[in-house]
């Protein structure tokens, strides 16, 4: 019989909660037997989660060299990532005009999942030389493990007078949060739609956005262009 | 190289969309190579989905005998399922007073997933003899496959003058839909929170709801009872 998971009610023979004292002995026995079944199911569920995670890890490894090859080809296409981000309606909606210029220096966008997948990932942005900041890489790390999921971003080393971020108070988020404001803020990653879109929508297939700002999802060819 | 999935943009050597004619030959070649990588990734993703589905099918089989044993023990506990449903705040919020009486005749609640898991499941309710309807089983089948997911419920054979459902117009859903109104309606299963709660929350561990109407999720013992 498996161990009960930490937050589940426990029922051990002589520890029946008082409000169940009205049950007859045979019914109490049934309750305890149901509890045993639930403990066994807990164990099976845990094994299932672990096995699915291993499958996901295996396929992440298989995807990796393809992402690497893709990155090499993408380097031949000027403005691939800025075009891709601007063609995605959710991302473009937070990119302001200055940021549109800045993102022309974005050379590589990468997602790196943590080894165990479930505890988080990094969004890594690699920039060419530019007039705004010294960093060549800016990483936003999304930590999903632990009691309080959080994010951490590489501090941006602004060039003299070149900081274009107006609202960097993460306790005062407003409706018009911009792309770089999103980038530097430690927001609850479980509520961070932008990070999720980049990881689950753009990263798996950026080409579709690069090619096609107005692609109607129901068309499967480019015939009307 | 894999086949492109049906709804993705296609890029085959001589079929570049017109708006990409401005690209130089080398860049066009890069685009086509990126597209090839995406096709390979599509294939990997499909394999991953299939393998995860197989893991889920394997564990569903492993869970099955435990659910069977649980069902045997549950039979010894009068009103197990009505108590369990009434102790779940989302389900109890749609059970009206008449239905509370009717559900005292609910002897078995079962979920049966389709063999392939992904295409749907059945919620099967088995009732004892009662004054309301002739059916001993009422099944709500949730079909997730196909273009238009749908549900289908066993027609209820009401006893003379005993139909207690007031609003059976599924085109006119109102805020106060009751449990049996939910049961008989063909609503879009992708928007059906009630079916999902029964399948993913109650069915995996009904005991926690049966035992504990006011269980605070942060307590792991019954000490305060
Ligand atoms: Ca236990
Ligand atoms: Ca293709
Ligand atoms: Mg890449
Ligand atoms: Mg059962």
UniProtKB/TrEMBL annotation, chains A, B:
Q: Would you indicate the residue range of the signal peptide?
A: none
Asked if the record carries the keyword Transmembrane, the reply is: no
Similarity remark: Belongs to the nucleosome assembly protein (NAP) family.
Q: What is this protein called?
A: Nucleosome assembly protein
Q: Name one GO biological process term.
A: nucleosome assembly
What are the protein's UniProt keywords? Coiled coil
Keyword field contains Coiled coil: yes
Q: May I have one GO cellular component term?
A: nucleus
Residue runs in coiled coils: 27-58
Q: Which organism is it from?
A: Diploscapter pachys
